[in-house]
Each structure stands twice: as structure tokens, then as C-alpha cells.
Amino acid sequence: MTPESFSLLRLLNADTPDAGPALAEQLKIPKGRIPALIREIEDAGIAIVRVPGRGYRLAAPYHRFDLALWRDACLALGASLPVNAKKKPRLQTVAHPSVVNASEEVPTPHPLHLEWVEQIDSTSSELMRRIPRHDIHALALTAEWQSDGRGRRSRPWLGLPGGSLMFSLGWRFEQGAGFLAGLSLAMSVAVARALEKEGFVGIELKWPNDLVYHYHKLGGILVELNGDALGPSQAVIGVGLNLTLPKTARSDIPQAVADLASLKKDLPSREALLARCLLEMMSALVDYARGGFVAFAPEWQRQHAYQNRPVKLLLPDGQMVRGTVAGVDASGALVLVEGSDVGKDGHRGRYTAGEISLRRI
Questions:
Q1: Are 281 and 190 in contact (CB under 8 A)?
Q2: Alpha carbons 233 and 225: distance in angstroms, whole number
Q3: In degrees rounded to 5, what are phi and psi of residue 249?
Q4: What is the pLDDT of residue 43?
Q5: What's the pTM value of the predicted model, to 2 decimals?
Q6: pLDDT in tens, 161-178
Q7: Are 205 and 212 in contact (CB under 8 A)?
Q8: Among 55-64, 196-205, 243-252, 267-276, which stretch is predicted with the lowest mean pLDDT?
Q9: How far is 357 from 267, CA to CA, in rounded Å?
Q10: What does the buried/exposed string (b/e) look like for 70-91 if buried means 16 or more CB atoms within 10 Å of the residue's CB?
Q11: Dihedral (Cα; 126, 129, 132, 133), 10-degree rounding
Q12: pLDDT at 109 (0 to 100)
């Protein structure tokens, strides 16, 4: 989507339909541009109703993300407002209620910054680009639309304006990449905790970085690293969650998917969900920095949709391994009992993130 199509999207959000010439006049563009912009919006998965003789309107209301509502949601969860918080139109800062800056003489709550943009190639790519010039620690970036959102193994991540939650969070670690091998799993635990606290039940995890409901994908997590092998390092944690997915959008996604609206009648606002997710993630990141993935492993395994299930693992080179999921090790690698019969132990193979795909048999 383009800035013009977002401007049109806001106009179509009115209670009454508008004809093309009237819309063009409000946008100060040639009326011949309206059909092309309508197609851009529809291609993004947003349904538009054509009312004969009257014009266009959205099939469902579009609510643009509101930073002030996000701040208020954080405050309702126990966060506070820092005295010297940055005041920018597209940036809000709150202080985490339990994460503190222990290095200070008098420990203070850790600030969390959230920046909002209407459109971007990728929130994770943008934070990675900022690393050489800016401190991205505890900086989150969320967007209405990503033109190049991506998931694991460079697969595209499709999100809908208003119907998805797409954000990335930067974090600084003293440790290096080896210590952070299980970070995506720990973050999936944190997001699952957040959703459970918001009233969603039945959500499970899929190794290494998916949230699923009845084996249908609800969301995904992608961790990207920058820094020295032994540390320090910076992590960018990208999260995508399906909130409401119309049938037209589902047809464009090459796998079974689900949305949070199907799990709960009263869907929390995007602002409330993001507040809960970020606060849970910050708490988990502090715990991870202290002890790694070990403390998260039991909870992760309890929620693993494929735990103790027969599976096949598809390797990047085309080979396939069959076995039963025994769990994960202390680094987050998948442990698979390969080629075992029921009641008998087979060879235990260890598989790391980024090398395989997991499929239910």
C-alpha cells in the first residue's frame, strides 16, 4: 500500500459511502486514480463494498493504531510514565513495572519505547538498519503495513492493516549468538503467556517459532542477531499475530491459518494486546539474559503441539527424517527419537532452528 491508498482507506472508513469524484476531490488527486487505489486496498486484504449509485465504503471498520491507547493499556498493567520520556507524535515511552535498571545507584523501572509507522518494508529490517547509528535496546516498532514482512527461512509474512499485529523489539545482550540459540522459543512462551492473560485458551507452540491453534498457524516469531560471536550482541525480535483474517486473505496464505477473533468473542484491541505482549516479552528477556533458555524449556514443552507426537522433519537438502518428538534441549534444539517403534527407544537426533521444517504426520 502507498500513502495515497492509506489516505483513501481513512476516507472509506466513514459511515456513509462516497463516490469516486468526491473522494478524489478530498484527496486532491485525479479521479482516475481512485480505481487503482481501491485495487491496492483490496489487494492488501481489506474488503470494500460498492454501493450502486452512491460509491464505496469499507465492509468492516478500520481502526488505525493509537499510541495513546497503547500507553494507557500499559499503565493499566502497572507501567508508569518516565519523568523524562521522549515526546514525539509517533513515539511513546513507558516504564516497565518490574524490570529495573539495576546498574543505577537507585534502581529505576526500565523504559520501553514504542514507535508507530503507517507503512514500512519490515519493522525488523528497520531496527537492524538502526543498530550502527542508534541504541535499539527496549525499542519496539509497529506498523500498519509491511511491504516486505518475512518469517523463518525468508518466507513472506502477510499481514492486514488493522487485522494483524506486526511489531519488532530490540534488545541488547552481553552474551553472543550461541547463548541466544533458544531465544525465539523463549519469546514464543512470552507471547503465549500474554495471550493467555488476555483470555485466549487452547493456544500451543510449534517448534521453533510458531504459535498455533489446532495445528493452524496464529502467529510467528523471527529473531535476528547482530554482534560478536562471544558478545555483546543485539537481538531484533519480530512478531506477527493474526487478529482477524477474512476468507479472501486466507486464500493467499499457503498453509493452514487461524486468527484470534475465532478464539474469543470479544477481541481485545491491538493496543491492549501489544501492551501485554511487550511487557511479557521484556520480563522474559531479563530472565533469559540471566540464565538462557533452560528456565523456559519445561513450559515450552508443556505447550508444544507436537510433544511426544510422531513427526517427519524435512531438511533443507530434501532429506526427510521420521521419529517422535522427545522435547528440546537446553539450547532450544529439537530432540527427535528417530525410527523408533512404540515402546522402544531409537536414536536421538538433535536439530537446530533454521535447518528443518516440522510437519505433522
A1: yes
A2: 7
A3: -75, -35
A4: 83
A5: 0.89
A6: 888 999 999 999 999 999
A7: yes
A8: 243-252
A9: 31
A10: bbbbbeebebeebeebeeeeee
A11: -50
A12: 82
Grid cell listed for 38: 481501491
